[in-house]
Design goal:
single chain, binds protoporphyrin IX containing FE, mainly alpha, 277 residues, 9 helices
Length: 277
């Protein structure tokens, strides 16, 4: 074998090893995140689902909320119920849409699941914006603005991803659908981000009750901007000409998985567990 061929072979080996490590990091993060999202869904069904089925709407407020059930506010209460109950569906739906087995073996299910996921995500964003600005459900202006930007990104990314699928531009559809997945899960990232910071800072440095402390502000915007940045790095890694780019991005994703584990454990232990039983 000549020198060129052997160096080409070595490069191929490094590249495929790098691809494998990048893939492994993404799968690790996805598994960890899926478990954490299922815990969130469990809490929603066990608390809001069970209370709603029993007709005990006042019981929504057993969990700390800004404005859950309000006597006499029929439209607000219905919008709140639709929002929290669809939250379970959209979170589960997002996970199923990303499962490769469904995409490969049941493409029809993926197509209908996608239409349902995008439609529910749009309803979630619109109902969330209504609850925030029409029902005045926010603790501080900055927290209302942070979640509203997430709502605007949900509306934009789901529309773009849907249009790409209709035009059969599947490469662009994959990218926009992954971005939509990240912003739809922005509120889940927010909860686990806050809990990870509470644990790491030993009690919530820079946070306050109206979510307007410096750490609150960074976490509320970071809840969807940081996952979007990590996703962007992951999507661009295969084409990168930078040496070791794939390995560095894999390390970043393994770090994200570690923080996710911490945040999920914190959220289950301190936020959700009393309402999961
Ligand atoms: C699509 C993803 C979303 C999911 C899965 C989701 C999920 C939830 C859940 C589970 C709750 C109940 C609160 C709790 O028990 O933690 C809730 C409440 C709420 N959500 Fe969302 N949400 C989403 C998007 C949004 C957006 C984009 C906005 C604002 C623009 C928003 C605004 C609200 C408001 C104002 C409440 C009431 C909070 C309270 O009274 O304490 N949500 N959401």
């Amino acid at each position: 074998m000549d020198a060129n061929a052997s160096s080409g072979l070595a490069k191929t080996k490094i590249t495929s090893a790098d691809n494998a490590v990048l893939r492994r990091s993404a799968v690790t993060w996805f598994v960890v995140a899926a478990l954490g999202q299922l815990a969130f869904v469990w809490m929603i069904l066990a608390h809001y689902g069970a209370k709603t089925l029993a007709g005990n709407f006042v019981g929504w407020n057993d969990k700390p909320l800004i404005k859950g059930y309000v006597s006499g506010d029929t439209i607000g209460n219905i919008t709140f119920a639709v929002h929290v109950l669809l939250a379970a569906l959209v979170t589960t739906g997002g996970l199923l849409q990303l499962a490769p087995a469904i995409r490969t073996h049941a493409p029809m299910l993926h197509r209908w699941g996608g239409r349902l996921f995008f439609s529910i995500a749009i309803v979630m964003a619109l109902s969330g914006l209504w609850l925030t600005w029409v029902r005045y459900t926010y603790l501080s202006l900055v927290s209302g603005l942070a979640v509203s930007l997430d709502g605007a990104l949900i509306l934009s990314f789901t529309t773009i991803a849907w249009r790409c699928a209709v035009k059969r531009d599947f490469a662009a559809h994959r990218r926009w659908a992954l971005r939509a997945f990240m912003v739809v899960n922005g509120v889940w990232f927010l909860r686990i981000g806050m809990m990870a910071w509470v644990l790491l800072s030993g009690g919530g440095l820079g946070m306050n009750d109206s979510l307007s402390g410096p750490a609150d502000i960074v976490i509320q915007f970071g809840a969807y901007l940081v996952p979007l940045m990590v996703l962007e790095a992951y999507l661009r890694a295969p084409a990168s000409r930078m040496r070791h780019a794939k390995r560095m991005i894999a390390v970043l994703i393994f770090l994200a998985a570690t923080i996710t584990v911490l945040g999920v454990c914190g959220a289950v232990a301190f936020m959700w567990w009393p309402y999961m039983r």
